[in-house]
Design brief:
Tetracycline Repressor, domain 2, Four Helix Bundle (Hemerythrin (Met), subunit A), globular, 281 residues, mainly alpha, 2 domains, 14 helices
């Protein structure tokens, strides 16, 4: 059995924490902290599904990671492929069991939509240009919809946070693929940047960033969210995004994309703060 630190690195706890944080923000927006049972179950589902997805991605990306990320546990030989499969299956089963105890809409979202996408993303969808990026962005945005369904039994109010999470995630996923161009091309993985080139991908990222920066303030314009939403959106999300795009155009390389990918992870966290502050006028 691999050491705990190896499993820790495989499941990527930061990603799991961010997923649970999304559940907590949903509870905050819906004033649903008086529902500890569904809140706990939803948090477990999101955390374990996220961990399972991370391990599954490492399993199918082993040969690519030998080039792009040789320090990861699998290519470094710190854990076997068999042990990784057992870990991924255990995490998915561990997440599916509490999902069965939630409302019907939450069951449908988690078990009929999310779980199949998580399982088939890396072996199938990731190899199709843009399909993999859209899948990951959809999954991350769906966390808010799943959380609302788990807490309230329906999906009515969290579409705007889901859309913001989708947009931010889609941009970051494309930038991450720009970082991975060398390994993806060598192993025949047809991501959008690998197939159409870094410049074309940068054009698409720039267009998506412009759309997000134009559309994200609309909830404020339409009096759905208050000034704190707008202020945090501009300084926490839009300004870093725009500066990142300028940096990438001045440094159009895979290495620069790797640096910006880390910056955009912080922007994603800032996006959660924006969603949190949307409740204030």
């Amino acid at each position: 059995m691999p050491e705990g630190r190896v499993i820790w690195r495989m499941i990527r706890p930061l990603n799991m924490i961010l997923g649970v944080l999304s559940v907590m923000i949903t509870a905050w927006l819906l004033r649903a902290f008086n529902l500890p049972g569904p809140l706990l179950l939803a948090s477990i589902v999101v955390a374990l599904f996220t961990g399972g997805a991370n391990v599954t991605n490492d399993i199918f990306d082993l040969e690519i990671d030998r080039i792009n990320r040789p320090d990861r546990p699998l290519p470094a030989g710190e854990i076997s492929r068999t042990a990784s499969i057992v870990l991924a299956v255990s995490l998915f089963i561990g997440g599916a069991i509490p999902a069965l105890l939630l409302s019907l809409p939450a069951k449908i979202i988690s078990l009929v939509l999310v779980l199949p996408l998580l399982v088939f993303y890396t072996p199938l969808l990731k190899k199709i240009p843009l399909a993999g990026n859209i899948t990951i962005a959809t999954l991350l945005g769906t966390v808010f919809l799943f959380s609302e369904a788990a807490l309230k039994g329906s999906v009515e109010k969290l579409w705007i946070p889901a859309a913001l999470a989708f947009g931010l995630s889609l941009i970051r996923e494309l930038v991450k693929d720009q970082q991975d161009i060398p390994g993806d091309r060598e192993k025949g993985i047809s991501t959008f940047p690998a197939r159409f080139g870094l410049r074309t991908s940068l054009i698409l990222v720039t267009i998506l960033t412009a759309l997000l920066c134009l559309l994200a303030p609309l909830p404020y314009v339409r009096d759905l969210y208050g000034k704190w939403y707008l202020i945090s959106l501009i300084f926490g999300v839009e300004v870093p995004l725009i500066l990142s795009i300028f940096y990438l155009w001045k440094n159009p390389t895979s290495a620069a994309s790797g640096k910006i990918s880390d910056v955009l992870k912080l922007t994603t966290i800032a996006g959660m703060v924006v969603i949190f502050l949307s409740r204030f006028s």
